């Protein structure tokens, strides 16, 4: 009898250990994030230790660098220089220095042009080609705290917490996938990898990261991490990865996305107007007479065929066409060219129709000069970004009306937010946007 009791007790302990092992979060790891978004060509940088204990490692010298310490690095005559705690500047004879974190802390990075960001972890500075290359050495879960709020928004925690969780899992998966095959570096640029803004954007989204700690998206069969791609707004139809990057991916395929319809403000529906001469000049042609769109099944434009008034023809890839008018570095508004899911129509060459008749209000600030509350005449428009000309032009204009923002592959962030508002859980959101997957501990 006692043997049976001991055996049952042993089995209970083993079972409990297995449950705890499965429930325990994966261990975070240190990663390297190159700060190129706003600091790619930094010539002068100041690093202030806000809290925690650090070491400053210069060649073979290690200095204590506690909270309140300051380091300034710059250059003089193409030679790197540095100053520690406001002492005299000295020539830096090496090319690499490190501000090493000893315990949990944070530091500020400032530049003379007003850029100021706060980061957890440590910092490595490399002198290369006349500027400093900055690399944030940070815990992977702390890294996500600087990704999720800027890829989505801390405000989405109000009614959309499940979307933030879905974003946390996708961003963690993306990070792990990018670290495969010996890759040790990721950037903070949304144009290269995923946006990362450090500690300064941390907020309510951190709860979503903690709630999903260690969880990643894996292939349903191989259990390997997938390419967890995502974009801001699918425009109502996600895109096949092959149509964007040329490689087929069973996890990121094209499908209708009703959850991305009617949400997103200016990125839900946008309109861009451009005169025939300006459109032609963007691609080395005369005033454009005709535009023909070749589309993927999703409705996104594969290529644009242009014909000008002289009979010249040119075919432009859809993404190249968008990039010619995309508002780089400008606030996102509905009067901008935001993606490749669009239709086109041409106005009459001698149109005297005001913008307001089309529901277009983007030029309200110019309306007074034409004494029209509805905006300037279409015949005088150069483009939505360039404004108007003094004289009417005889070639007409083209109106591009589109939906969505971004490449459209994988999870639509606005769609995920809408799903969360409707009561869907983060695993259901992930299962909707990615095919042939499961969620596992990384």
TrEMBL record:
Coiled coil: none annotated. It comes from the Bacteria. Residues 129-217 form the Sporulation stage II protein D amidase enhancer LytB N-terminal domain. InterPro entries: SpoIID/LytB (IPR013486), SpoIID/LytB_N (IPR013693). One of its GO terms (biological process) is sporulation resulting in formation of a cellular spore. This is SpoIID/LytB domain protein. It comes from Desulfosporosinus youngiae DSM 17734.
């Amino acid at each position: 009898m006692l043997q049976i009791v001991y055996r049952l007790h042993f089995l209970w302990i083993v079972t409990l250990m297995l449950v705890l092992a499965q429930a325990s979060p994966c261990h975070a790891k240190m990663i390297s994030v190159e700060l190129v978004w706003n600091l790619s060509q930094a010539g002068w940088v100041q690093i202030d230790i806000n809290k925690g204990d650090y070491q400053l490692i210069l060649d073979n010298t290690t200095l204590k660098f506690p909270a309140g310490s300051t380091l300034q690095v710059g250059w003089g005559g193409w030679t790197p220089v540095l100053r520690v705690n406001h002492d005299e500047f000295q020539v830096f004879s090496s090319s690499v220095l490190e501000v090493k974190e000893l315990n949990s802390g944070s530091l500020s990075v400032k530049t003379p042009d007003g850029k100021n960001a706060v980061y957890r972890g440590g910092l490595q500075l490399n002198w290369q080609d006349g500027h400093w290359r900055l690399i944030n050495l940070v815990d992977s879960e702390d890294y996500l705290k600087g990704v999720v709020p800027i890829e989505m928004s801390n405000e989405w925690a109000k009614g959309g917490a499940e979307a933030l969780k879905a974003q946390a899992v996708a961003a963690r998966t993306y990070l792990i996938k990018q670290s495969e095959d010996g890759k040790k570096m990721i950037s903070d640029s949304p144009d290269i990898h995923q946006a990362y803004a450090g500690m300064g954007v941390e907020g309510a989204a951190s709860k979503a990261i903690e709630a999903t700690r260690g969880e990643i998206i894996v292939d349903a069969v191989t259990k390997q991490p997938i390419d967890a791609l995502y974009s801001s707004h699918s425009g109502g139809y996600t895109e096949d990865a092959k149509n964007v990057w040329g490689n087929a991916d069973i996890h990121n395929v094209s499908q209708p996305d009703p959850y991305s319809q009617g949400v997103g403000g200016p990125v839900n529906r946008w309109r861009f107007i451009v005169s025939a001469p300006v459109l032609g000049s963007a691609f080395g042609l005369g005033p454009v007479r005709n535009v023909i769109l070749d589309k993927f099944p999703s409705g996104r434009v594969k290529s644009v065929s242009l014909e000008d008034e002289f009979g010249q023809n040119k075919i432009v890839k859809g993404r190249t066409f968008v990039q010619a008018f995309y508002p780089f570095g400008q606030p996102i508004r509905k009067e901008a060219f935001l993606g490749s899911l669009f239709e086109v129509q041409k106005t009459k060459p001698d149109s005297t129709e005001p913008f307001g008749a089309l529901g277009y209000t983007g030029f309200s600030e110019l309306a007074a000069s034409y004494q029209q509350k509805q905006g300037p005449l279409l015949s005088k428009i150069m483009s939505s970004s360039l404004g108007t000309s003094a004289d009417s032009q005889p070639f007409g204009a083209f109106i591009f009306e589109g939906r969505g923002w971004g490449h459209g592959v994988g999870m639509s962030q606005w769609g995920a937010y809408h799903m969360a508002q409707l009561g869907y859980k983060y695993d259901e959101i992930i299962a909707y946007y990615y095919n042939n997957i499961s969620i596992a501990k990384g």
